[in-house]
Design goal:
heterodimer; A: alpha+beta; archaeoglobus fulgidus dsm 4304 fold; 15 helices; B: 192 residues; alpha+beta; six-stranded antiparallel beta barrel; globular
């Protein structure tokens, strides 16, 4: 037995206590945060100044739009016909201990034409990467972070392509991405030229969707951010005190998330709109794609829905997203059906990976190469683990 | 017209499973005679005894939803592929002759299964030697299967269908003489 449960029992118990303390802190802080939400509900201009201030940027504060902060907007009526496109991706990361050094990105997408009565169209796009340039960018083995970023970009490209393949004169088109629309490239182990290239290509996809007349949104399940809470906390401080704040960690507002803050929303209702406070949003803002968000009660959960500036500024597109995402969640346990299906389409299962590796082995043998083997380390791990299972 | 049912996904000399993409109104049909080309020029005949759509947690969850739009239903059906069709081997054809016993070899995976035309059904059911191959499968709805097959065979014969069923009934009476309740049930199922 590798994990000796007897040795972690006490740690598990301690973990339970820590979690309970955190939940208690959150419970105690939440009413105060909600009170601030109501208190500052109509102070959008003042709050925007706080968000734009140095401490506001340091604390990654969200910035409010013009809506009342504590407003709850009911689900708009769904257009009789609307087309939703969703995409997700999966990957096989490169493994130098495996049979061969390669990686795979598989992207799956679905076009769901609500009101058509038709079965959705499903598409996958697998890509195998094996060349020197692909595996050793800048001369070093590719990192998992870069593979993930390439996968995200492949998803966005397919999302734009599939969405814009639907006729522009037909039903409204909503492109739905899994997760945030922002890209966190700077924090990852990705060489700078690749950061620049990937970000530019991602923004190019948003340009295309905007020009094509579609709407786009990112669905974030169980968001952990506290950008609105941070904003409210800073707003109630005296300006001179505010200047010295670096984050919520040392304050009594540590704990509640924005998701908890907007827990008063009823099924189908969305919160007011905010602009995401993170520094990554600057690149998006510069191209007219500043990422905004609202919280949505999906019927079983509270999710964050992210939208670029031009969707927020178009009341029709905003309503398409709100209505369509909620409608999708209604039938799927509080999570958009199309995203579940896109994931199901994209995911590479263990047995599929094994079958692919057998194909690779076959191709190598046909080219006169010796049958490849996993590294000794991988082989011995497998031997030891299989004996343990036996 | 001969219709494609699907492709073999699993096979033995006695039974095989076929995967197909969608259910059409007349394909695949319980009790219908189908055929597949085997190694050499043999054609193996079988009766469809089962059409199965596997469930999973996702479809079970969706099944409990009220007010489910037709797009969701259509999507769920298209993701549950392949639909699995069970076929019981009842004979084969070699060099122009039809045999009502098991073929020497099973069909291979991904071989294509076709429905038989009415003429082929009439020809195959011109003798009743395959009855035993069906009736001996107690783990299948063998009586229902044979009865359905005989009804189709009678229909394919037009006016000659009724005398055909009478002849088939006589053969069943001979085979099931020691099991009168079973015989009675089967005869009721093929009664015109």
């Amino acid at each position: 037995m590798a994990l000796e449960f007897g040795k972690v029992v006490a740690q598990v118990e301690e973990m339970g206590q820590v979690l309970a303390a955190r939940a208690g802190r959150q419970r105690r802080a939440l009413p105060a945060a909600r009170a601030l939400l109501h208190q500052f509900a109509g102070s959008q201009a003042e709050l925007r100044e706080v968000a734009e201030s140095e401490p506001g940027k340091r604390c990654r504060c969200a910035s409010p739009d013009d809506e009342l902060l504590d407003a709850a907007f009911p689900t708009p009526s769904l257009a009789e016909c609307i087309t939703l496109v969703a995409v997700d991706g999966s990957q096989i990361y490169p493994d130098r201990h495996g049979l061969a050094f390669y990686y795979v990105i598989n992207v799956g997408g679905i076009i769901f034409r609500c009101g058509s009565g038709q079965a959705p169209a499903v598409r996958t796009q697998p890509q195998l990467y094996y060349s020197e340039e692909q595996l050793y960018p800048n001369g070093y083995p590719i990192s998992s972070d870069l593979v993930s970023a390439e996968r995200d970009l492949a998803e966005m490209r397919m999302l734009a392509e599939m969405t814009l393949s639907e006729p522009s004169g037909g039903p409204p088109r909503v492109a739905l991405a899994d997760g945030s629309l922002l890209r966190w490239l700077r924090r990852a182990a990705i060489p700078e030229p690749h950061q620049v290239r990937i970000l530019a290509a991602h923004l190019e996809c948003l340009d295309q969707l905007r020009a094509g007349g579609a709407a786009v949104a990112g669905f974030v399940s169980r968001p952990q951010s506290a950008e609105v809470v941070a904003l409210l906390y800073l707003a109630q401080l005296e300006p001179d005190v505010r200047e010295s704040v670096n984050g919520l960690a040392e304050t009594e507002y540590r704990g509640p998330t924005d998701r908890a803050l907007f827990g008063f929303l009823k099924p189908g209702e969305r919160s007011a709109l905010f602009t995401r406070g993170t520094g990554e949003n600057q690149d998006f803002r510069a191209r007219g794609h500043a990422i905004h968000s609202f919280y949505l009660n999906t019927g079983a959960d509270l999710a964050r829905v992210e939208l670029p500036e031009w969707v927020v500024r178009s009341p029709d597109r905003l309503d398409w997203v709100h209505a369509a995402v909620y409608e999708q969640c209604r039938f799927n346990n509080g999570y958009p059906y199309v995203l579940t299906r896109a994931d199901e389409t994209a995911v590479i299962l263990g047995e599929e990976r094994e079958a692919l590796e057998q194909m690779i082995v076959g191709a190598m043998i046909r080219q006169g190469l010796l049958p490849p083997e996993p590294s000794r380390k991988a082989q011995q791990k497998q031997v030891a683990r299989s004996r343990k299972r036996g | 017209m001969q219709l494609q049912v699907g492709r073999i996904i699993r096979s033995s000399t006695t039974r095989f499973a076929v995967g197909c993409q969608v259910l059409q109104p007349n394909v695949p049909v319980f009790g219908s005679l189908v055929k597949v080309r085997a190694l050499g020029d043999d054609e193996i005949y079988g009766l469809i005894y089962d059409v199965r759509m596997e469930d999973d947690p996702f479809v079970r969850q969706m099944a409990t939803q009220e007010d489910l739009g037709p797009e969701y239903v259509a999507d769920m059906r298209s993701r549950q592929v392949p639909i699995e069709v069970g076929v019981l081997v009842v004979g084969f054809r070699r060099a122009g002759l039809t045999y009502h016993h098991l073929p020497p070899q099973p069909p291979l995976s991904l071989d294509v299964i076709y429905t038989c035309l009415p003429d082929e059904l009439v020809a195959f059911t011109g003798r009743f030697d395959y009855f035993r191959l069906v009736l001996d499968n107690r783990d299948l709805p063998a009586d229902e299967l044979l009865a359905a097959n005989l009804r189709y065979a009678a229909e394919a014969r037009g006016d000659a269908g009724q005398p055909f069923l009478v002849e088939a009934g006589r053969e069943l009476a001979r085979l099931l003489a020691m099991d009168l309740p079973r015989l009675d049930g089967l005869l009721r199922r093929i009664r015109p």
